[in-house]
Amino acid sequence: MPVSKKNRKEPLVIALSNQRGGVGKTSTTINLGAAFAMQGKNVLVMDMDQQGSLTTALGGDPDNLDITILDVIMTKTGKPEGPATELRDIIVHRWETGGGKLDYTPANMKMARIDIKLFSFPGWDRLVRFAIEDLEDYDVVLLDCPPNLGITTNMCLAAANLVLIPIKSDILSMKGSTYLYETIEGVRRVNRGIIAKALLNEFDERKVMSRNIQEQTKEFWGVDLLSTSIAKNEAINRAQGMAMHIFEFDPSSKGAKDYAALALEIQSLMDGKGKKRAVG
User: Fold this and answer.
1) Dihedral, CA atoms, 70, 267, 250, 170, nearest 10 degrees?
2) What b/e readout covers 133-156, taking b as 16+ CB neighbours within 10 angstroms?
3) What is the structure's pLDDT at 214?
4) Is 242 helix (H, G, I), strand (E, B) or coil?
5) CA 98 to chain centre
6) Pairing of strands 12-16, 224-225
7) What's the confidence (pLDDT) of residue 153?
8) CA neighbours within 13 Å on the CB side: how many for 256?
9) What is the pLDDT of residue 25?
10) How far apart are alpha carbons 63 and 107 in whole angstroms?
């Protein structure tokens, strides 16, 4: 018997976003999701990008999909373009370990049409939230946002308890994130409880710029940097090139240890804050 929405445990929803590409957003989505699964949680990672990078990185084929997240979103408008599609209809099982699992939902170039389809739809910013609310058996949902601040990213932010902003230790990465911070502030009208944190990715403590970036993050755009950083680690890149996450490729690597620590820090942070969204 389905669990009523009133009694259903809400998953922790994390949106990974940065309109600047090449900051390790998709890699972080996958490996953080796998880290949560290693800790016994049921995890769903959602590809929200028309490029389908997450889909490809997990072994899927974006060019050979009958239904995608776009079909789910259009169903939530009440005007599906084909058969009504729920989130559970597109979930792909990817990996199990211990008491946890890692599943994903795919995307492809069909998502490029979403702005045109939704710009005049009232309440479009709540559609991803509505889709996630139908889930029954996931502890954590991670949203891999596109590298822009359009409708899709705004829908993901409106659904999230936490927005995680991967940045690299270069000044351009930081400057590009100022617009994201402004977008997050705008989303608070429908999601007052959203928490924003930055993650330093491909950190090299030997470089002065990497050390300085930690000090400058708060000054630049008012978002705290998480204590855990992801060190520059070749195993992470090699794993993604083989359509594997780091815990499959080399669970004893520095990269795996960093992502395990990141999952623990985020869980502790959200347990302390209380993860329930303040809905506007």
Assistant:
1) 80
2) eebeebbbbbbbbbbbbebbbbbb
3) 62
4) coil
5) 23
6) unpaired
7) 96
8) 16
9) 95
10) 9
Q: Tokens 């990078």: give the residue.
A: 53
- The per-residue DSSP string of 210-226 comes to HHHHHHHHHHHHS-EEP
Residue 273's pLDDT is 74
For residue 112, the 8-state DSSP code is G
Contacts for 60-65 with beta carbons within 8 Å, 24 or more apart?
Answer: 60/92, 60/104, 60/106, 62/106, 62/107, 62/108, 62/109, 63/108, 65/106, 65/108
Low-confidence residues of the chain, pLDDT below 50?
A: 1-3, 208, 278-280
pLDDT of residue 173: 62
* Alpha-carbon distance values, 145 to 13, 67, 171, 248 (Å): 13, 19, 22, 24
Residues 103, 45, 114, CA angle at the centre, nearest 5°? 120
**For position 225, what pLDDT does the model report?**
85
213: Cα within 13 Å, side-chain hemisphere: 28
- Give backbone dihedrals phi and psi of 11, rounded to 5 degrees, phi first: -75, 155
- What pLDDT digit, counting tens, does each position of 174-190 carry? 665 667 888 999 999 99
User: From start to end of 115-189, where are the E strands?
Assistant: 140-144, 162-167
Report how far residue 46's alpha carbon sits from residue 94's, in angstroms, rounded to the nearest whole number.
12
